[in-house]
């Protein structure tokens, strides 16, 4: 489900390249879904994310208990970097998601975002341009996306193992597919802050709104 969210969220975000009104309308449609569906989805996502953390902690504890004691010699030379960095990338991603929600959902990072409108719709486009015009924030997003790719490249392949679908024949194929998926998603996400930093956005629209974000340094 988390993987599905990351794919759908990217498809939504890529509408940035279709222009301000497209992404702003998309944001409004999501916010005005009938029957409180947005909150149902948010609650589902939150529940799944908590379960992911809880089951990971349980797995680590079970692994340690099964070993009895730590290895005298750590023979992890052959395990890939992504596998060894799962805990670190997971913790950084969790911090990233907390920051990201404070940034673009609750607007605690910049309260002006709440007042920015495009007609009846919230001005998501202007918020993204303003947000990513801050180089430090963009760099943080880009680093987080690289870690996301590493986390997913191992996690997506492990998913098949967990479900018992990873046969000897499929093993290599699944590994490559997971890598490809992870890095395509990463490139898609990174393309947005990179486009803003490179000035590749609708400058006429942003200027028409009165606030021109600080130029990318
Ligand atoms: C450049 C990359 C990204 C951009 C431009 C972006 C954009 C956004 C925006 C505009 C929102 C606010 C939606 C709203 O409340 O109107 C949002 C919410 C959110 N994003 Fe992202 N996002 C990015 C990457 C990610 C990644 C990689 C993840 C997960 C690993 C993620 C997880 C979330 C979550 C959990 C929310 C809260 C959803 C909600 O409010 O219901 N985002 N994102």
For the biggest sheet, the summary is: 2 strands, antiparallel
Q: Return residue spans where pLDDT drops below 50 for at least 5 consecutive residues.
A: none
- Described by the principal axes of the CA atoms, the overall outline is elongated
Number of helices: 9
- Structural class call reads mainly alpha
The fraction of residues in strands falls at under 5%
Compute the number of structural domains: 1
Across the major sheet, the strand order is 1-2
H and E string = HHHHHEEHHHH
How widely separated are the two ends? Answer: 37 Å
Helix content: over 70%
In this entry the ligands are: protoporphyrin IX containing FE
How many distinct beta strands?
2
Mean pLDDT score: 89
Radius of gyration: 20 Å
Characteristics:
single chain, 217 residues, mainly alpha, two-stranded antiparallel ribbon, 2 strands, elongated, binds protoporphyrin IX containing FE
Care to describe what's here?
There is one protein chain. With 217 residues, the chain is mainly α. The protein has one domain. The chain contains 9 helices and 2 strands. The protein has a two-stranded antiparallel sheet. Helix 5 packs across helix 7 and helix 7 packs antiparallel against helix 8. The mean pLDDT is 89. Protoporphyrin IX containing FE binds next to helix 1, helix 5, helix 6, helix 7 and helix 8.
Short description:
The protein is mostly helical and 217 residues long. The protein has nine helices and two strands; from the N terminus they run αααααββαααα. It has one domain.
């Amino acid at each position: 489900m988390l993987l599905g969210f990351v794919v759908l969220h990217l498809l939504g975000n890529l509408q940035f390249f279709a222009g301000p009104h497209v992404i702003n309308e998309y944001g409004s449609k999501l916010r005005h879904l009938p029957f409180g569906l947005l909150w149902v989805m948010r609650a589902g996502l939150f529940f799944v994310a908590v379960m992911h953390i809880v089951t990971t902690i349980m797995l680590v504890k079970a692994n340690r208990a099964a070993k009895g004691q730590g290895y005298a010699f750590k023979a992890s030379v052959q395990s890939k970097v992504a596998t060894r960095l799962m805990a670190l990338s997971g913790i950084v991603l969790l911090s990233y998601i907390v920051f990201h929600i404070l940034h673009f959902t609750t607007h605690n990072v910049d309260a002006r975002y709440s007042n920015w409108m495009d007609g009846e719709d919230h001005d998501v486009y202007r918020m993204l341009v303003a947000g990513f015009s801050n180089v430090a924030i963009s760099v943080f997003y880009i680093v987080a996306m690289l870690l996301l790719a590493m986390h997913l490249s191992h996690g997506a392949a492990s998913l098949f193992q967990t479900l018992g679908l990873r046969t000897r024949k499929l093993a290599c194929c699944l590994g490559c597919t997971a890598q490809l998926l992870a890095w395509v998603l990463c490139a898609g996400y990174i393309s947005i802050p990179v486009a803003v930093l490179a000035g590749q956005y609708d400058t006429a629209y942003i200027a028409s709104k009165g606030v021109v974000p600080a130029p990318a340094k």
